[in-house]
């Protein structure tokens, strides 16, 4: 039985139709399996990554990579007027991403080079589509994106080499610096879209963000990533993190997100960005006091910032690029509330109730799965439905 050609052409007509559902589905499946591993529900992980490294790798280089490419393949054509891959090329990239997840999970049963090859190919191949559009249009403002993504891809390859013992490097040392590359993207792109979306909907709301804060935040973010990779002293790491937290906090407050708290589909973007300075302050707290592990900061960046911003941006992009109105809906509000409570439960609550760690982890995991599951429920049909034209 041949696939419906109209279904194929619709599904593979835009990056968001492929990679947003893949990201959401992987969020449910990968996080669900991780919770089962931690709680003893399952004991098998046939990967060459240890369980913690597998969890971190797959959420960072698997799930988040899908969101990034889905977003860029949707946004870059708007920025440049040039297409990104569609049709068979887009389908092929989606297949490579899926095979990457499967090969890493079953890595212990496969040739040592195969998961590295498959997973390592995805981002470089996907970046080609971005480069062609940016260079073709002379869009120099965004030339930094392929560079950052290729550096991010390099960290992915190093994590594979470390996990398989091909290089003497602890793979877990890579994951927080890798997350900071994602934080950089959220800081730059979020710094464009959040105030623009806010001003566009509420033109009477006046804001003033000093331009110098962006370069200062970029320097701080990459400085912190370098300090972590080079294992600088706790004082150095803590000092850079405090500075990064202060700069990004001022940026966040300058956008006056509290004024749109009644508008969930917009407010979630402000909330998501607000987790970035909180993450930096948690890095500082961990480094300067030694009273908390860096995992709290890691989850502020990932569950808080990444979780909130990806769900907010994916919801807006899916509605907007499908020709649907950006209305607040009960299910969207439930999604955003769920991810916010999940972030608080994973990044903050264990600091206050360390004896309830396992319970808070299970609760945060359940709320994360609920949020992304509801996203699939709300938008699943839209991904295979042609754009509405009025």
Can you tell me about this structure?
It contains 13 helices and no strands. By secondary structure, the chain is mainly α. The chain folds into 2 domains: 1-168, no CATH class; 171-383, Cytochrome c oxidase-like, subunit I domain (Cytochrome C Oxidase, Chain A, Up-down Bundle). α3 (51-80) packs parallel to α7 and α9 runs antiparallel to α10 (264-289). It is globular, with a radius of gyration of 20 Å. The mean pLDDT is 95.
What is the structure about, briefly put?
The chain is mostly helical and 390 residues long.
**Residue share in helices?**
over 70%
**H-E order:** HHHHHHHHHHHHH
Q: How would you sum up the global shape?
A: globular
Q: Can you name the CATH architecture of the largest domain? A: Up-down Bundle
Gyration radius (Cα, Å) is 20 Å
Give the distance, in angstroms, between the N- and C-terminal Cα atoms. Answer: 34 Å
Largest sheet: none
Highest-level CATH class of the largest domain: Mainly Alpha
The fraction of residues assigned to DSSP E strands is under 5%
Number of helices: 13
According to DSSP, the number of beta strands is 0
By CATH, the superfamily of the largest domain comes out as Cytochrome c oxidase-like, subunit I domain
CATH topology of the largest domain: Cytochrome C Oxidase, Chain A
**Unreliable stretches, pLDDT < 50, 5 or more residues?**
none
Give the averaged pLDDT, no decimals.
95
Count of structural domains: 2
Question: What topology does this entry show?
Answer:
Elements: H1 5-11, H2 15-39, H3 51-80, H4 87-105, H5 114-137, H6 144-163, H7 172-201, H8 213-229, H9 234-254, H10 264-289, H11 295-321, H12 330-352, H13 357-379
Helix pairs in contact: 2-3, 2-4, 2-13, 3-4, 3-5, 3-7, 3-11, 4-5, 5-6, 6-7, 7-8, 7-10, 7-11, 8-9, 9-10, 10-11, 10-12, 11-12, 11-13, 12-13
Protein name: NnrS family protein
Organism: Paremcibacter congregatus
InterPro entries: NnrS
């Amino acid at each position: 039985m041949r696939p419906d050609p109209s279904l194929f052409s619709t599904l593979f007509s835009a990056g968001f139709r492929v990679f947003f559902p893949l990201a959401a589905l992987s969020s449910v499946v990968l996080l669900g399996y991780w919770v089962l591993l931690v709680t003893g529900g399952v004991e098998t992980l046939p990967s060459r990554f240890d369980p913690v490294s597998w969890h971190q790798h797959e959420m960072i280089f698997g799930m988040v990579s899908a969101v990034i490419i889905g977003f860029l393949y949707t946004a870059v054509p708007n920025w440049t007027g040039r297409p990104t891959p569609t049709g068979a090329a887009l389908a092929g990239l989606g297949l490579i991403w899926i095979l990457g997840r499967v090969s890493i999970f079953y890595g212990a049963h496969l040739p040592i080079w195969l998961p590295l090859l498959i997973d390592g190919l995805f981002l470089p191949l996907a970046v080609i589509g971005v480069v062609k559009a940016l260079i073709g249009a002379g869009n120099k403002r965004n030339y930094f994106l392929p560079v950052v993504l290729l550096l991010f891809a390099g960290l992915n390859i190093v994590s594979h080499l470390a996990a398989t013992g091909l290089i003497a490097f602890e793979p877990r040392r890579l994951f927080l610096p890798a997350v900071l590359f994602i934080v950089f993207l959220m800081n730059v792109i979020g710094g464009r879209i959040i105030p623009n979306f806010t001003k566009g909907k509420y033109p009477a709301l006046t804001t003033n963000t000093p331009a110098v804060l962006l370069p200062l935040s970029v320097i701080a973010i990459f400085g912190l990533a370098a300090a972590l990779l080079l294992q600088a002293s706790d004082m150095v790491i803590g000092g850079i993190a405090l500075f990064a937290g202060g700069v990004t906090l001022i940026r966040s407050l300058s956008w006056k997100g509290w004024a749109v708290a009644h508008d969930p589909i917009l407010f979630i973007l402000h909330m998501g960005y607000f987790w970035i300075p909180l993450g930096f302050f948690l890095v500082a707290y961990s480094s300067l006091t030694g009273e908390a592990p860096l995992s709290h900061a890691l989850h502020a960046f990932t569950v808080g910032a990444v979780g909130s911003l990806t769900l907010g941006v994916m919801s807006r992009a899916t509605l907007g690029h499908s020709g649907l109105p950006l209305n607040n809906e009960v299910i969207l509000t439930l999604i955003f509330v769920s991810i916010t409570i999940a972030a608080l439960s994973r990044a903050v609550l264990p600091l206050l109730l360390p004896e309830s760690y396992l319970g808070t982890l299970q609760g945060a995991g359940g709320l994360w799965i609920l949020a992304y599951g509801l996203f699939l429920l709300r938008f699943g049909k839209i991904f295979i439905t042609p754009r509405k034209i009025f």
